[in-house]
Structures are given as C-alpha cells and as structure tokens.
Amino acid sequence: MQSCLQRQQQRLQTKHLAAPQYHSRRMFGCRAAAPASEVESIQGIRPEIQQAIAAAVSNCVTETNLPLPNKRVGKVRDTYELEDKLVIVTTDRQSAFDRLLASIPFKGQVLNQTAAWWFANTRHIIDNAVLDVPD
Fold it and tell me: Distances from the Cα of 26 to the Cαs of 4, 22, 66, in angstroms?
C-alpha cells in the first residue's frame, strides 16, 4: 500500500512534473494515521461533557418526519418546501463522498447555530432570508 506522500509524488509525475525528492509530508498535508488507542481515547475533555456525549449518542437526529409537504432529504439537512417558505432541519448525519458515515451527537445543533451566527453577523453586508432559528 502506498503512503500519502508516495501517492502525491506519483500524481505529480503523472502530470509530467518533476517530483523533487525533498518534498515532505507537511508540504502535501499528509499525516500518518494515529494508533487506534489515541483515536479511541480523547484526553482533556471534562467528565460531564463525556457523559453528555455518551448519553446523546442514542438520541441523534438522523431523520425527520414532520407533518409538512414536499420533503427533500439532503446529505445533512432535511428540507420541507411550503408555499412561500422553506423549513430546513439540520440533522446529526455525517457524510463524505455522498455516503452516510455516522451520526454525531450535537452536530446538527452546532452546524445550525454556526450558520445562524454568520447570517446574523453578515446581515449588514447583504440581506438574507432567515426568519427564525428555533432551538
């Protein structure tokens, strides 16, 4: 199996570019995979936060079934199209390359609050269509 650095050098050579031998992992943004023990154990998180995350795993919002018409399911958001409004629900789904990978507790809430912050703090630059962001 090729390393990240070897794959990047091969891509450069394929594009008819010389791949100097002094390229480093940092230049290509490659990182070696962490050992499994480091991935499974996260250091520095307060115990009450770890407990809240563990308790929330079974309560992830992976799909919505609101009594509204015209439901469209996206990679992360479910959208309901009303006559003159859209209701957008941000879920806890995690996807990459158009594949659903997992559900992450609080992901939808964090994503929704981040978007709301940006909409509120850029409103003076350009108007947006946000009517409300309920908790």
Answer: 11, 11, 47
How would you label 3-19 residue by residue, b for 16+ Cβ within 10 Å and e otherwise?
eebeebbeeeeeeeeeb
Alpha carbon distance 2, 116 (integer Å): 42
89-135: pLDDT as tens digits:
999 988 888 888 888 888 999 999 999 999 999 999 999 988 888 87
Count the residues in the chain.
135
Q: Return the structure tokens found at 72.
A: 């469209």
Nearest Cα to Cα of residue 86 among 128, 37, 28? 128
d(CA 8, CA 29): 10
pTM above 0.85, yes or no: no
Amino acid letter, residue 19 = A
CB atoms within 10 A of CB 90: 21
- Let me know: does 76 contact 111? Beta carbons within 8 Å: yes
